[in-house]
Amino acid sequence: MKGATVAMLAMIAMALLMVHHTEAISCGDLANMISPCLGYLQSGGSPTKQCCDGARKVQGATHSQADRRTACNCAKSAAGQFKVRQDTASNLPGKCGISTSIPINPNVDCNSIP
């Protein structure tokens, strides 16, 4: 019986070690990643390398539906607060050579993002 208990505890410990605990992305995380883009998003022109690197980080950090919806809501909120131009925001992924499944549109229903 003692051997079975030890084996069970070992299996539970291995299962806990195999589970990857991940935290959901926050608006603060997203703001830090995309902050190098603020000048471009407000004024246009060409995004800097640091901006595109940040946009790639956002792309890499939004794999789950919850993260994409959070990113959408954060972006909508920040866009109005920081007076982001719609055209520059929409053009950013293409100018940085990335694609995104998050619609860049102030009228999008973030809860509808798959």
Automatic annotation (TrEMBL):
Swiss-Prot/TrEMBL keywords: Lipid-binding, Signal, Transport
Pfam families referenced in this protein's UniProt entry, alphabetically: Tryp_alpha_amyl
InterPro entries recorded: Bifun_inhib/LTP/seed_sf (IPR036312), Bifunc_inhib/LTP/seed_store (IPR016140), Plant_nsLTP (IPR000528)
Signal peptide: 1-24
Gene3D superfamilies reported for this sequence: Plant lipid-transfer and hydrophobic proteins
Domain Bifunctional inhibitor/plant lipid transfer protein/seed storage helical: 27-110
Example GO BP: lipid transport
A GO term for molecular function: lipid binding
Origin: domain of life: Eukaryota
PANTHER family: NON-SPECIFIC LIPID-TRANSFER PROTEIN 2-RELATED
Family in the record: Belongs to the plant LTP family.
Biological role: Plant non-specific lipid-transfer proteins transfer phospholipids as well as galactolipids across membranes. May play a role in wax or cutin deposition in the cell walls of expanding epidermal cells and certain secretory tissues.
Protein name in UniProt: Non-specific lipid-transfer protein
